Inverse folding.
């Protein structure tokens, strides 16, 4: 097209054409009336909105609006409404938990299920930072999802630990142990903990017996739950590290909880029962939740007595259905032979993965067990996979998800 001739005179176009045939061109028409009216209404709405709600920066702060509305106020109102609803709906169940002993709560499937479901958030808020979202532990903090307990896995002991807290203590350099002796002793303990796969130097046991270790950890290295002394014979380490030998040496030389030693290991748990963080009913729920994570001591059935009316938790029907769900049913090993145990462990772990509820260490233990043919390690892996399924059957999910 020529620069000075418009092929569409009188069309009110701008003279801009976007293709060679000049079919696509830019017009200069007024917007539709409805569009202009909508824009004017929007301008008025913006003015009204800016006056009614917080909006414009105002001398270092902001204009608060005539409504006095804030997101925080709305959030607090919503939380208050939710708490009022929960208090009304679950008042009878909460009272039943308050009036029941820990043993009775665990014996009652409905109360136990309610306690576990409602305690999951409590555990996440107060315990997961140290012990992991699924009780799998973190560096320097015990695993709660196994049956290895420093102070005992009964309901009473767990309640005591959560209520009163714990403070680990182990003297440094017992009976003047030297650096070389500490390294030799650490090797002995680590190899002994490997069971049949280990190769401990029997001569090193003299160090264990002569340097005072036997006083707390016992002649078989099995520990003492009264003292909170760890079991040294099972390769389960509270102070887990990439270099486990160096970590054990550090504990021997610098102890645990020795405040005057900057290299000492720390072993402190706060006393939740003496704080205002959780109340008495919430504490009971946490005890039940931790107990069922995988290693709690079994609760004996109640003595037979006349049946009394019991409060039915609103989650009972759904919980019963969940407990019977075949996707949470573990495979049982046919025997204690390695082949049967590792097959069950792999099958249960595969089920874990299919439901997105596997624990991180399970797969690692299975691989190590297959490599070393360690039956004890295979059993531990299988137990952890079964525990994940059991937790999921009552809590609908086993955290953390990987």
């Amino acid at each position: 097209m020529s620069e000075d001739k418009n092929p569409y005179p009188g069309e009110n176009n701008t003279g801009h054409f976007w293709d060679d045939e000049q079919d696509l061109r830019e017009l200069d028409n007024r917007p539709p009336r409805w569009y202009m009216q909508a824009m004017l209404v929007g301008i008025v709405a913006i003015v009204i909105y800016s006056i009614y709600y917080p909006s414009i920066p105002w001398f270092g702060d902001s204009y608060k609006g005539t409504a006095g509305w804030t997101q925080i106020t709305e959030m607090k109102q919503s939380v208050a409404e939710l708490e009022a609803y929960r208090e009304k709906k679950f008042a009878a169940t909460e009272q039943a938990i308050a009036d029941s002993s820990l043993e009775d709560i665990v014996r009652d499937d409905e109360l136990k299920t309610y306690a576990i479901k409602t305690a999951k958030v409590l555990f996440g808020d107060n315990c997961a930072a140290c012990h992991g979202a699924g009780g799998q532990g973190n560096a320097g903090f015990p695993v709660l999802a196994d049956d290895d307990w420093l102070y005992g896995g009964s309901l009473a002991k767990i309640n005591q630990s959560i209520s009163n807290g714990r403070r680990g203590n182990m003297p440094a350099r017992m009976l003047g142990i030297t650096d070389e002796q500490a390294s030799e002793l650490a090797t002995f303990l680590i190899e002994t903990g490997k069971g049949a796969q280990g190769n401990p130097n029997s001569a090193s046991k003299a160090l264990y017996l002569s340097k005072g270790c036997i006083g707390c950890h016992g002649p078989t290295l099995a520990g003492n739950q009264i003292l909170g002394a760890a079991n040294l014979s099972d390769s389960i380490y509270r102070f887990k590290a990439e270099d486990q030998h160096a970590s054990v040496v550090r504990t021997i030389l610098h102890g645990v909880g020795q405040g005057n030693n900057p290299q000492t290991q720390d072993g402190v748990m706060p006393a939740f029962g003496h704080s205002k963080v959780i109340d008495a009913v919430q504490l009971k729920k946490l005890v039940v939740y931790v107990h069922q994570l995988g290693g709690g001591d079994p609760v004996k059935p109640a003595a037979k007595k006349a049946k009394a009316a019991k409060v039915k938790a609103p989650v009972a029907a759904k919980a019963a259905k969940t407990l019977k769900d075949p996707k949470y049913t573990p495979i049982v090993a046919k025997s204690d032979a390695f082949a049967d145990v590792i097959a069950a462990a792999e099958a249960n772990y595969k089920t874990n993965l299919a439901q997105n509820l596997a624990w991180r260490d399970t797969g690692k233990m299975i691989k190590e067990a297959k490599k070393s043919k360690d039956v004890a390690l295979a059993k531990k892996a299988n137990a952890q996979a079964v525990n994940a399924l059991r937790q999921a059957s009552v809590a609908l999910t086993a955290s953390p998800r990987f």
Summary: The longest helix spans residues 375-395. The radius of gyration is 33 Å. Strands lie at 13-17, 25-27, 57-58, 61-62, 166-167, 268-269. The CA atoms of residues 43 and 49 lie 10 Å apart.
